[in-house]
Predict the 3D structure of the following.
Amino acid sequence: MSESPARLGGRPTTTEFTVAGPLGNVLRAAFADQGISTEDVSTIIRTGPGTDHDLTDLVRTLVEHGLVVQSVRRVNDG
């Protein structure tokens, strides 16, 4: 049995998506309840524990909207 995507080793986790370039207004609004940080050449989207996003579906949606997903990683919150 696999662990929930929001928990790794019993600890809450955050998933970070790095995409090339800035997000447009529509996608920025869609992730308004998540952490978004824009760097010079990329945007970082953070989804935390308790969000109902399926990681595969989220990556697929970002790609379908023309974004290049540069990385996906889990960050331990505790």
